[in-house]
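Reopening: structure tokens for the flavin-adenine dinucleotide complex, inputs below.
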Amino acid sequence: MADGLIARSRHRIGPFHLHRPSSLAEALDLLPTAAPIAGGVEWVEVMKRGGTPAALQDITKLPDLATIRQEGEWLRLGAAVTHRQLLIDPIVEGAVGGFRHVWREIGNPRIRAQGTLGGNLAASNPVYDLLPVLLALEAQLEVADASGTQCLPIQALAQRPRHSLILAVRVRAGAQLVFDRSLRPVIGIAAVRRESSIQAAIVWAQAEVRAAPLDDPADWCDQLPHWVDDAHGTAIYRAAVAPVLAARARARLLLPVGAA
Ligand SMILES: Cc1cc2nc3c(=O)[nH]c(=O)nc-3n(C[C@H](O)[C@H](O)[C@H](O)COP(=O)(O)OP(=O)(O)OC[C@H]3O[C@@H](n4cnc5c(N)ncnc54)[C@H](O)[C@@H]3O)c2cc1C
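Re-run output (same inputs, fresh job):
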């Protein structure tokens, strides 16, 4: 039982049960009543606003959740791997050239040391960067619930079963990635080259991200949903900057390897 903390916001963090399952079966049994916590970055924000869950379960010690490994042509990134681990692990950059730049851009050293891949995805915040990157990479999501473990395309993230755990993200090795953004979170773009084809996805506040072939940056931008004004930027600015980022990403991917 955790109790008695007072956040700087002056909200008292109420008591909650903290479970520490050691097996996936135990974690799945707990899921309907105890939500997962990994790095706790999002949960701390919730608690600072006065929301206290009745129970949480620390999933960081579950087998294979905090590991990175290559399995044949697939790179398997455990959901509880931190952004920092992803930044420094040579297997990651070896499998997808340019991947390191994504993790380097995330937050600050504290967020990178605490925050995890699965926590970022499960938070479903449309201004976070990882979903468009993984869409452009055509990644797969390994999820488990009471009925078993399955692999879903990353675009099914929001449709994963209720009471499921994200176990890992799987990315096919052998790609080159460019990730670029204007002043976050105004707009960001991830573009991936595999052999001669280039695929890109975009992130910007309040819009769906989309992955599609990036043959002609102007055409690609024309297919995007209508831009909106919000607190972070104007529609006019977004409409102007999107083709620039798209063209720049494509040009970088067409440079000889090592020159980008
Ligand atoms: C100041 C700041 C700056 C940031 N900057 C960036 C940025 O530049 N780019 C970016 O992309 N992101 C950014 N983030 C977001 C950050 O990456 C996420 O908050 C972090 O990765 C969340 O991971 P966590 O393990 O701490 O999540 P937690 O707080 O542990 O969990 C978050 C949510 O996910 C659920 N969850 C966690 N793991 C799993 C799992 N395996 N399966 C199912 N559900 C799960 C939890 O129940 C909870 O609902 C920033 C955040 C902050 C606070």
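The pocket of flavin-adenine dinucleotide is lined by residues 35-43, 59, 79, 105-107, 111, 114-116, 118-120, 122-123, 128-130, 165-166, 184 (CB under 6 Å). The chain is about 30% helix and 25% strand. Marking as resolved unless the reporter disagrees.
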